[in-house]
Design brief:
Layout: H1 4-15, E1 21-25, E2 30-33, H2 53-62, E3 71-75, E4 80-83, E5 87-95, E6 99-100, E7 103-104, E8 109-113, E9 118-120, E10 126-133, E11 170-171, E12 193-200, H3 209-217, E13 220-226, E14 230-234, E15 248-249, E16 254-256, E17 264-266, E18 273-274, E19 278-282, H4 284-290, E20 298-304, H5 306-318
């Protein structure tokens, strides 16, 4: 019977012998992500998936892919890829100073990468995460219905064990060709301030009035303690009047308030249950926007109804039909 080590060795051998793009250099957070894993949280498995699902969706849309097809989430930069054959690619999201053989590329657009040409990503100029799409998505073996990389749980990615892209990895496009679409103008990446819509609920009634006023009327700063699991905010101290609570399921964008009164917004790689009181949860659109907020970015929370959040979410999906 093959062991997990044997399986990993076989997968590494496979990914080293064929492909469309080869990784020549990689930053710390170049990850394969798609729409995420669903229907598995009762097993304690994280959702995963692209933090800025909107940018991944646009990158895929420009090539005629399904919005949730697997692409590369490039956080901060540092990734360098070389084409083994000519293919069309698309980039959306943050401006990471992408270049093709040293020549600048548009932040949101599709382009041809000829055999032997090099695609490189530098440091962020606006936003935090760029998304690279290949024709048809990335051809690899999904786990629990997804290629999404969750390093903490050692799931997904090119090797199936949650590894970030490594030098020598080869990425195969799922299709030989693609459509070509021009991306419409989109909102600029947050730099000075971002307004994030929050659907109130959960334990919000247990916070005192002064805390609720501060939560929605004062600015917050994105703390340096931020990753794919969650983002800590710094600002006014929020106080909850309830005592301990039994752990419960945690949705995407949940805004937990631990005893220090500084909120934590839980994202795609979050744990599946938690026991801190919550103000509610960010809307799907707000979660995507938060994924582009670098440490130090100023944000404001804006309360919305579930109907408003759902309507805006459906509107975004309709743009890709």
């Amino acid at each position: 019977m093959a062991t997990s080590k044997d399986m990993q060795t076989a997968q590494q051998t496979t990914r080293a012998t064929s492909g469309s793009l080869v990784v020549e250099r990689t930053g710390p957070l170049a990850l394969i992500q798609d729409a995420g894993r669903f229907g598995v949280r009762h097993l304690g498995v994280a959702q995963g998936g692209a933090l800025d699902w909107i940018s991944l969706g646009w990158a895929n849309w420009m090539l005629g892919n399904a919005p949730g097809a697997a692409g590369i989430e490039i956080a901060i930069g540092g990734l360098v890829l070389k084409a083994e054959r000519t293919l069309r690619l698309a980039i959306a999201g943050a401006d990471l100073g992408a270049t093709r053989d040293g020549e600048p590329l548009a932040t949101n657009g599709s382009f041809m990468l000829e055999q032997g040409q090099v695609l490189a990503f530098d440091q962020p100029k606006a936003g935090l995460r760029a998304y690279l799409a290949l024709p048809g998505g990335i051809g690899a073996e999904p786990f629990m219905g997804s290629l999404s990389t969750v390093a903490r749980e050692q799931l997904g990615g090119l090797d199936g064990f949650g590894s970030a892209l490594q030098i020598g990895d080869r990425l195969v496009a799922a299709k030989a060709s693609s459509e070509t679409r021009d991306m419409p103008s989109v909102a600029a990446m947050p730099q000075d301030e971002a307004v994030l819509e929050l659907v109130t609920g959960a334990q919000i009634a247990h916070f005192d009035g002064a805390s609720l006023f501060a939560a929605f009327n004062q600015a917050w700063q994105v703390d340096s303690r931020a990753d794919r699991m969650g983002v800590r905010l710094t600002g006014p101290e929020l106080r909850c009047q309830m005592g301990g609570m039994v752990s419960e399921g945690i949705p995407l964008g949940a805004v937990q308030v631990p005893p220090d009164g500084q909120p934590i917004i839980l994202l795609n790689d979050r744990q599946t249950i938690g026991g801190y009181p919550r103000l509610g949860a960010l809307s799907p659109i707000a979660c995507a926007r938060l994924g582009q907020c670098a440490p130090g970015t100023t944000i404001r929370l804006s309360p919305v109804t579930p109907h408003q959040a759902r309507t805006r979410y459906r509107h975004q999906l309709a743009l890709w039909q």
